[in-house]
Prior knowledge:
Blueprint lengths: L2 H7 L1 H24 L6 H37 L17 H59 L6 H27 L8 E5 H11 L1 H6 L2 E7 L5 E5 H25 L2 H6 L5 E9 L3 E8 L19 H4 L9 H12 L2 E7 L3 E9 L4 H5 L2
Parallel strand pairs: 2-4
Antiparallel strand pairs: 1-3, 4-5, 5-7, 6-7
Amino acid sequence: MTFKQFLMDRLMYILFFLINAALIVLVVYLSYSHQGVILPFGNLLYILVLSLTGLTCFLFIDYVRQRSFFRELALVSKEEGKPEHILSLTSAVTREQLLMQKLMHTSYSLYAKELQEYRAKQEQHLHFANQWVHQMKTPVSVIDLLIQQTSREEPSGRLQPFLQSMREETDRLSHGLNMMLHTARLEKFELDIAADRVELVALVRGIINEYKTVWIGHSLYPKLSADSEEVYVETDRKWMEFVIRQLLTNAIKYSIAKRKSMPSNELEDEKPGRQQLWITVEESGQGWSLVIRDEGIGIPEQDLPRVFDPFFTGANGRTTAESTGMGLFLAQQVCRRLGHRLSLSSREGEGTTAVILFPKPTNMYELLYE
């Protein structure tokens, strides 16, 4: 609070003091006039000047006395100020300020207590979620092993379509559990990161091979190409596997959705492997890029600005029951925290292109704070 603001807050007191001083001078003047004595105008003005001088000195001293408290209050009231700045309020002078200081300290204590209780509940919830996911992953893995065993025992039996359907549903369950687990871990990302030099082409090839039954079952043809046989990038292998799986899952899901939306006569004439999915590792001036391009249903133009918002499913999500709106949000959050850049472009009815940019060390700071 400036001295001018301090005076404006006390404007009514100052006006009352001036009126009172003027009345006193008037009473003195009239008293002496009644006795036949005329006081000089200079004497009356001198009385007013002395009164104003005393008032000014008092206000200035009072402002200096309270200035430390005003500065502390200004620090607390800033928008970017932290709640713990309330504890810096220790220079109260007047009883009113002491009361306000006590009130703010009490409010902060209550706030800190409730925040601690909320954090404890959140920690308990995250611990329960992680434990539940790990418990559910075991039966899902057992079911998958049973499906594989049954499939080997009856390689050409009538159960194959049923087993294939069960395998797809099991994959969906596993994908959903992994997404929930990574969502919980994202809260403490800094405790679950191990940056290293990762060979990107081999990493992508391994993930593609994990989906080989999907490629065959849905007549999709993934095509991997790279500008170099070995491409090393600085990243976290586990988190990057999650991001790539998420992008590939989306590409597969919406490619399948496009095939389902095709007329039956066109679907019958379609050759196996006609619908392709391109995975490219290419070098640019800023670093290495992983490009995943599909020929799926694409994303409507009005939905593109919001695809990275949490829980946003858009028009496509309404046609795909398993869409949660969290996949791309988590992928972008992971890329941002790893220092990568994830971007998405699409044309409705033609397909979608996802690009992960692994910047060179010289460009890392620029991309993080762009």
